[in-house]
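Hey, resending since the last one bounced:
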Amino acid sequence: MSASPGEIGLIVVGDEILSGRRRDRHMEAVIERLGARGLELAWARYARDERAGLAAMLAATMASEALVFCCGGIGATPDDVTRQAAANAAGRPLQRHPEGEALLRARFAGDASEQRLRMVDFPEGASLIPNPVNNVPGFRLERHCFVPGFPQMAWPMIEWVLDGPFAAWAREPGASRRVRVHARESDLVGLLERVGTAHPDVRLACLPEMQPDGDYLAELSVHGATADVEAAHSALERAACARAPGAVSIHPARASWRGCHGRSRFTPRQRRAPARGPVAQRARGL
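The C-alpha cells again:
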C-alpha cells in the first residue's frame, strides 16, 4: 500500500438520511478519526438505497485513486443494495466469501439461514473488514471500504482500516488556530490575500455569520503544520487587530485537526468585549 496519503472520501447510503428520518453522524466521526491521524476528508456524498444510482456513483469513485469509506446498505434486507452496487461498479460477480461464511456460521450456528449468509456475498476478490461488535464483517475492494450503517459498528471498522491496511498514510496531526473579527466577509478579502501570500504553506478560511442584532462576525482560521500555523496566525492576528481594534476575539494556541471540524474543543484564551459606538461601527465595516 502506498505510504503517500491520497484523497479520502465518504459515501453515506440510506433513504432514511436523505428523507431526514435520521441524521447523519458518520461524516463528523470520520473527520475526527482522520484528524487524529493527520489526515483530512476531501469530500462526502449521500446516496439513496437505489442500486443503479449507487453503482454509477461507485464506478466514478473507483476510477479515482481515492480511499473511500462507504457506510450503510450491506445488510440482508431487500433495501440493502450496496454489495450488489459495488459488484456492478467493479464489473465483478458477487461470490460468497468462505471466511465470511465461516464467521457467520460460528456466530449464528443453527440460525445461519440463507438470508443471513447473503451478508457475506461480496464482489469477487474482496477482503474482509472485521466487525468487533457482532462479527458480521464488512469488505474492502481495493481502496473502497464498505461498512454497516450502524455507527457502533462502522466507526471501529473504519479505525481498523486506517490503522491496518492504510496505517502508512498516518501523519502527525496538524494544527489550527482562529480569530474572530466583527467585520463583513467582503471587507477581509485583502487581509486574507496578504496573509495567504506571505504564508503559502497553510490554508486560510473565512466563516461569516450574521448576529441576531444584525452585526457581522467572521471567524478567520488557519490550518496546517504547527510551525507554519503559528507564524501565519501571528500575522493574521496582528492584521485583524490593526483593522478592528477592540473587536477581536483570539482563540487558543493549538488544536488538532479534529478541533476545527465538528466538535469544537476551543475555549477562548483572550476575549475582548466588542467596542461600542461610531468608532466600533466603522471598525466593523458598518
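Residues 8-169 form a domain with the Molybdenum Cofactor Biosythetic Enzyme; Chain A fold (CATH 3.40.980.10).

Sorry for the duplicate.
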